[in-house]
Design brief:
mainly beta; three-stranded antiparallel beta sheet; 0% helix
Amino acid sequence: PAPGTVLYKFSDLADLESRGFMFGKGKNRFEMFIIRKDNQVMGYINACPHIGSPLEFMPHQFLNREKTRIVCATHGAKFEIESGHCVMGPCKGQYLPTIPVQIVNDDIVIGENDDAG
């Protein structure tokens, strides 16, 4: 999706709530998700670094029961919410690829790609 694409309303996403999105179809399909923690929103590609499988076990359910980690439903890998760093599982030490997102007038939008950071 292009920078500026509106994903969701910030005020409609509760703290420690996640939301998945799919763009395109077939070979051009792109899946991502966002998570709100406090007043920040993080965006990640919806693919486990281990084998590329989608992370959620049910639509929009990317967090463990305690809402302390992102969890892969396939192998149980656990990732830090803020960084996407895998702290447990077969991809330990790897990261979920990030998608830049920002909040603009209560909209969560795709941000500009920051290759420098």
